[in-house]
Each structure stands twice: as structure tokens, then as C-alpha cells.
Amino acid sequence: MCDFQHGLFILQEIQKQTYMQLNKENIQVRANTIECGHDTGSDVFAGFVLKKKLSSESDLGFSLKALNYGCAEKNEVAYIPFIENLKLNTSKTVVHVSLNHKAVLTTFMRGVFQSNALAEETKPNSKKKDMTLLCHVGGALNNITNRRIFLTAFVYKRMLQKDYNCNIYSTSGDGCTLVSDAIQQTIDNIVAVNAETSNDVCDSVNLKIIEKLKQCIYTNQAQGKRICFDARMCIATLHSNRGTYLQEIDTIEVVDKNGEPTETLSYAARMKPATELKSDLTLHLTPYKQLYRLQCSSLLLQHSTTQTVKQVFCCCGGDTSAESHNIHTLLSARKKELWQSYKMKYGRKVTVFCFSLGEKWNETIQCVAVASLKLDLYLTSFNSKLKIGEDNKIVSRDSLFILYNYARLCNVKFTFDEKVKQGFYPPLPSPAEIDFTLLTEEAEWNITLRYLLTFENLLKDVRVTMTTSKDATVHVMPKYLSDLSRDMSSYYHQTKILLDPRPHLFPLMFARLSFAMALKQVMKETFDLLGIDPPEQM
Fold first, then answer.
1. Which of 13, 228, 297, 463 lies deepest, with the highest CB count within 10 Å?
2. pLDDT digits (tens, 9 = 90+) for 106-142
3. In whole angstroms, how far apart are CA 426 and each of 250, 421, 435, 504, 510?
4. Are 400 and 372 in contact (CB under 8 A)?
5. Phi-psi region for residue 514, left (φ > 0), alpha (ψ -120 to 50) or beta?
6. Strand residues in 263-392 grouped as ranges (E)
7. Which residues, in sequence order, are bridge partners of residue 98?
8. Is 159 in contact with 307 (CB distance < 8 Å)?
9. Nearest CA to 270 among 201, 343, 185?
């Protein structure tokens, strides 16, 4: 097991050392972490990784305004000197930090393989808050937009489970029913989420809502006696923690000129069962086009109840071009594509194994197809179009490239273990016995800094965004996998990990193998958060 929390500790230590060094040089740092969007505290990392084109000599940057000295303890203690030098930019607003590569890399690699459990995992469940994740979908789950919403909901649940007890509900049909965790374990063979609730039940709820709204509704005679709700007045009376609503919401029609409940009121009735649950936060996941109606329905519910739960509205399905596609057609096209690729690579083996020796190739192709299709659905941000060709093939090849590079790392470890069994290599020693100073390749440092060291900080930022942003940012994690795969692929081609079985080469091989296993583990942890079961062979 790898403990990537150690990377966050090192980043905080670098931040502390930066602050202390600036003080020694009489450069005043005024903490203002609110400006960079963080709460003050000792666990905030306010720096950023510099790109080579910005600074070829430095590794990290800190805005002097955002530099958080909360982690700079009053009592100075002995620490590993991670910083080599500091350099202010010309306007003296940003400090560029050059790091001691060997000290950072060695400390990180030794710490990352610690087996002790993280402190967060030992927190009692009683301290967790309750959250309702409400998926606003219409029609079959196999619709691409709906599937992306549910996939996002399960990522949110996995990401936030340290702080929240999360339950996922769906507004599919006319009811609001808890969705089983089993729904995300496969990407096909799912047609519906829950049974419909009878119209009589919905009509009864509608009447109750109207009764509780009677002091705030009025009859608009000019529009054929439509009954309307003054949303502006409602928003003005809501406490600030009850959600942020669209500016264009003004008047909400509750009953139309024919005396029938409007779609907005009916939708409020559908949401009511989920909003009555004990919850500290309701997080709505909705397509962009439904946001206005959803917020109107939410206002009707909030004003008709004593509810004080904070409402967060997150858009995660704005690609109308994909709505005509069904998940079955995309999966079928991906399987066909993989089948052809495997036959080109392995020839008659695929056909022979498939038809005479059972399910080996079928299982492999199914695993790769499901994993890659999930990645494709995640990789495209929700305000971008999912590019699908006329043959129902998703144009992007990034997902298969990510899976292929993960399988490469699995194969490295498998090959090493086999050669240990055969006596070619000695077993991998403990991390304390491995000389990580031998990792001197520039690629090893760049990958450590950009991906391994900053991994936990990335997850932390994603978790904060999930409960504060109006747009789902799940694509950040598969984008991380895509960028890591490209840099790792270059390293794999340029650097030999498993060396000749000569004693003087073993220390270097052990260091590189451990580095590769850290890459494998960080990819696996990201896959787990995304609910993806990656193949170990392709």
C-alpha cells in the first residue's frame, strides 16, 4: 500500500520553509488565504507547480498574498532542507522556489510506502454529516446524459465519504427512490432505476404544497387566472446557507389557466421524499437545461416546509448532442472495435480461445470496453461535447491509452515477480533499504513533482469543489490520468526498469521498480475513485 498523504505533508513543509526563509531575508509575508479561495489552516497548500516555460530553474511558486503561514510553527524544529533557493519575480508578488530534488524525492518515496493507516480513516462515523445526492434524470438510465450524471454521483459519494454519509436518490419516473450501489458496477444491462409513483400520490403532494404556499401565491387575472408564486420574495427571505439561485428566477407558475398543476409543481412533488430525509446538505446533480426548473421546484419545496438544509446545484450533463445515443450502442461499438484490434495483434489466438477454450478473450474485451467507456464519459467536461462518430465510436483514444499504460506497469511487476521465483532477481527489499538517490533521471523528478507529490492536494481541491461549485469537475481526475500516462509512457520508452541480473545493477533496479509501483498505485487509487476496474493485461 502507498500513503500519498505523505506528499501533502512534504508540500506543507516546503511551504513552511519558504515562509521562514522569507522572514530571515526580511521579506514581509502577509497571509491572506481567503483571496486564494481557501480557509486558513495548517493543512492548506497555497503553492503551484511551475511549468518549464515559465521558469527553467524553479519548481514551485507561491503568491506572497496567498502564502499561508498557518503551518509555520512557532517553535522551530529540525527538518529536512527541501529548499535550495528562493527568487522573487520582478513585481515581488510571487516567489519561485527551487527544491532539493534528491531530498524531496527520497523523503517522498520512503514515506509513500508506509503501511500505517491514515488518521482520517480512524475518525468515528458519528462525526460525519449526512448528505443527500439527488440525481435529476428523466427516462432510461441508458441515456448517455443520465448515465454520466449517475457516474458522477458515485464519484462524489466515494470522494466525500470521509466527511459525509451519502445516499444517492433519483427523480426518475414519478418517484424519488434510493439507488443501489450495484447500479454503478456495470455500464450495461440497466434499463430503469425505480418504479413510478401513482398520479394520485403526486396530486396529493401537490395540494399539500399549494396549501402551505397560500400566503405567498397570487392569482394572475391577466394571464387567465394562473396561480403564481413570488420567487423574488422567497429568495430574499431565505438564509444564505440555503443555496444560490439563478438571477432570472422571478415568478414561478404553480397552477396553469386550466387549473392543472404545472410541471414545476409536479417536479417539486417528485423531489419531496428525498428532501424530507435527515440531511445536512442536499447536492443536486442536474443537466444544464433542467437547472432553471429544478431551482424553481426547490424554492417551492423550501418555502412550503421548515427545511433549513443547504442546497447545492451542480450541473453535470449539458451535452445535448449525446442524448440521442444509448449506452448499449456505444458499448457494442467499443467491443467490436476492440475485437478487431485484438485479432490484428494476436491473430488466430483470439478466435481459437474465444470459441474453443471458453471466456478468456470475451472477459478481457468486456473488461477493457467497460473501463474505457467509463473513462471516455468522464474525460469530457460536461460543458463540452462528447465526440461520437456515425459508427457510434467515441473519437477520443485517451481512455485506451490510459488503460494500456496501467497494464504496462502491472506487467513490469508481474515480470519481476516471475524472475524472483526463477532466481534471476532477489526479492524487493524494504523501502528503508532502497537507495532512492539513484533516481536521477529528469523524467523521474518531473513525474514525482507533477503527479505523485501533488496527488493528495489535487483530491483535496476536488473535494472542496464538489460542495461549492456549480459545475461538476470529475473530468479533472481522468485528465490527471491522461497527462500522467503520457509522461509515464515517455519515461517507460527511455528508461529501462528491469535491468540485467547483475548485483551492481540491483540497487538502481529496485529504486526504479519502486517508482513504477508508486505510479501504478496512484493510477489504481484514481480508478477506484472513478469506479473503474482496470484490466491488468491488454
1. 297
2. 999 998 887 544 444 444 455 789 999 999 887 667 7
3. 73, 9, 16, 12, 10
4. yes
5. alpha
6. 281-286, 310-315
7. 85
8. no
9. 201
What sign does the CA torsion over 182, 478, 411, 521 have? negative
Rg (CA), the chain: 27
SS3 content of the chain, % helix, strand, coil (to 5): 50, 10, 35
- Cell numbers for 352, please give them: 481459437
Confidence of residue 284 (pLDDT cuts 50, 70, 90): very high
User: pTM score, two decimals?
Assistant: 0.87
Nearest to 392 by CA among 328, 326, 333: 333
- Burial of 183 by CB count in 10 Å (0-12 exposed, 13-18 middle, 19+ buried)? middle
Task: Of 303, 296, 233, 289, give the one whose Cα is nearest residue 267.
Answer: 296
Q: Is 41 exposed, middle or buried (0-12, 13-18, 19+ CB in 10 A)?
A: exposed
**Type of residue found at 53:** K
Please give the Cα distance from 137 to 168 (Å, whole number). 12
Q: Burial level of 179, CB count in 10 A (0-12/13-18/19+)?
A: buried
3-class DSSP state for residue 394? strand
Cell of 525: 487509487
Residue 179's alpha-carbon distances to 75, 87, 129, 452, in angstroms, are 51, 53, 19, 34
State how far the Cα of 198 lies from the Cα of 462, in Å rounded to an integer: 39
Q: Characterise 283 by phi-psi region: left (phi > 0), alpha (psi -120 to 50), beta (else).
A: beta
State how far the alpha carbon of 5 is from the alpha carbons of 41, 275, 525, in Å. 17, 35, 12
Handedness of CA 284, 286, 289, 290 (dihedral sign): negative
User: What's the CA gap between 136 and 249, in Å, rounded?
Assistant: 19
Q: Are 3 and 445 in contact (CB under 8 A)?
A: no
**% the chain with pLDDT above 90:** 33
Task: Give the C-alpha distances (Å, rounded to integers) separating 300 from 94, 204, 207, 295.
Answer: 48, 15, 12, 9
pLDDT in tens, 497-538: 999 999 999 999 999 999 999 999 999 999 999 999 999 987
Q: Would you say how long the chain is, in residues?
A: 538
User: How far apart are the C-alpha atoms of 119 and 3, rounded to whole Å?
Assistant: 11
CB of 168 closer than 8 Å to CB of 135: yes
94 three-class SS = strand
